[in-house]
Amino acid sequence: MKRSVSFILIVCLVLSVFAAGCSGTEKSRQQTESRSPNKENIDQTNYVTYTDSLRDTVRIKKHPRRVISIYNSFTNIWYSAGGEIIGRIDSTEQLPEKALSAEVCGSMGSPNVEKILSLEPDLVLLSAGIGGQKALIPILQQNNIAYMAAAYEDIHGYLGLMKTFTELTGRADLYDQIGNKIQKEVDEILARIPQDKHPSILLLFGTAANLSVKLSNTFVGAMFKDLGAVNIAENSSLTEAEMQIFSMERILEKDPDFIFLQTMGSDLEKIKKRVAEETTANPAWKSLTAVKEGRYIVLPKDLYLYKPNERYAEAYAGLAKILYPDVFK
């Protein structure tokens, strides 16, 4: 009888330990799932699903309160979508006034990992196209911190990101007020473009160290394409790298109707010197139609170096007035 009782007690003890272990495992699994944005069995009403620039599908919990943005364009869009940030990068670009009080977390190319982790964010906005930011992703994953590796190079990408941000902030009304308004204004501009005219353009990008050619896969190049302009640098027989090389011979051969220059850098004199060495110093430059007729234009940085975001309609209108002065007086 005593042996039977002992056996029963042992069995009960083993079962209770097993049950406790299962309960602990289940609790641990639930905690892990609640912190990870990539699990399949998350309540979709509280999460937004997003395919990022790395083609990974991530699920991010709505209404994040501790957001760090290490890419300025995303910072501006996040505030337009009704959000706020606790961390940003050190930058001279124009940011929303409220964002200036956020903690500085390094620079765009070198985000400060320790600072970011110390702020305990529940969402980090970053660009995977920048090496220092892409390298941050595995660290965020190891620490179960949600992130968005976003990217956009045209108005459609901007509006898509704005819509996702408003879904996260719960401010769909702001997309109606801002996103739909921008789309309508741009559509009205594009509807006025003459269908029988396709001005040829050359889009240059100058820094103190280099002068290169930009294509339609950049946000300014995409606007020119939408406006019916033909970029003379684009050639299906060349690689993208070959098309981006500045070549006076090719420019002389194509003789574009317009030449546009984007500049980047704070030392304007060095930029002017570098651009001049490649262009005006060459006697052939003056023979170009665009130069002779005053259609060599330096684009303002606020609309055509930094992404225009809420000012997209203004940016389109500015280019349309240059390309089609008779239509956009």
Question: What would you note in describing this structure?
Answer:
The chain is an alpha/beta fold and 329 residues long. It folds into 2 domains: 44-173, 3-Layer(aba) Sandwich (Rossmann fold); 194-323, Nitrogenase molybdenum iron protein domain (Rossmann fold, 3-Layer(aba) Sandwich). It has helices at residues 2-35, 72-80, 113-118, 131-134, 137-142, 155-169, 172-191, 219-226, 240-243, 248-254, 268-278, 289-292, 301-304, 312-323, and strands at residues 47-51, 57-61, 67-69, 87-88, 103-104, 123-126, 147-149, 200-206, 211-213, 230-231, 258-263, 296-298. α6 runs antiparallel to α7 (172-191) and α7 (172-191) runs parallel beside α14 (312-323). It is globular. The protein starts with a helix and ends in a 6-residue tail after the last helix. Residues 1-42 have low confidence and may be disordered.
